[in-house]
Amino acid sequence: VTVETGEAPTAGGGAKLGWFLTGLFVLLGIAEHIFFARSNGEVLRDGGLVDPDSYMRVMRIVALHHGDPWYNTVTMRVGAPEGLSLHWTRLVDVLIIVPAFIAHLFGPSVDRAIYWIGAAFSPTCHILGCLAAAWAAKPLWPSPGHRFTALIVLTNAAAFGYGVFGRADHHTLLLLMTALMLGAALRGAIAWQPVAVERRWSAIAGVFAGFGIWVSPELMVPITPIIAAIGLFWLDAPLDQAKTGALPRDWAGMGVAFSLAMAAVVFIAIPVEHPPADWLKPEYDKISLPYLVVPLIWAAVFWIARHIRGGFGASLVTGALLGAAGLAALLAHFT
Prior knowledge:
This protein is an all-alpha fold. It contains twelve helices and two strands. The protein has a two-stranded antiparallel ribbon with strand order 1-2.
């Protein structure tokens, strides 16, 4: 299995045109979100956010600014007297409160800045996600055609619905992480490049996967097909070698790089999100120990697969055994 690239060398003039088109697209995206925000009226005219989750997110960040403990995940504003335990992580909170502190230097109060930056968070991530999708598509869609991917994502109803102005939400950040992860994974899969480059891009994809899981375990949905694809490419490598006569590609090594990079980010995230007493406590709706164990199991499976020698039959039997062992380990961990 080989993945050819559609990228073509660009001259200086082509690079300048690319930046010009990118700038025009950003202006288009901003204009579209402003037009919808003005016509919708909930934020710019009525002074409100678009849904209860957005209010909850903003109030959670405001409470953090006013001294709420970093590790506190329970809000007493809902579900009294016990309160409601939120599955959100602090990563999005930091991405909103840090710009709010910077904005405060120019006049507005921190609380007001948190509100407006929270309102603008989703459309900002949506536009960045569109640009990331175009970048991700470039190996498959020769320039300048890959830029149409940005327009497709910008006008997608589901993506735009999550990215509207006034939604202080993490879902468009997941869109951005997914596009960056897929783009890096595709660059790792490109044929006829050094093994070190393949592993580097695979590790970069794993880093984006780790940050996506840090935002929300929902990113396991696009991560799992990547792991499955790497495994299938490894299984197909002996057939590819027999057909072309070339040395088989190190798909298992790419799987190890992806998995270990993802595990490294999760390893850093757990003490950021949980106090020491809860480091080993599983929480399946937010980043915790299970999401560290999963990529480590993947890494172990790919590491063993990398040392398997033989034809397609040996790979098929070994792959079945490794898959069964990995599944058994996951079931043992999650049940």
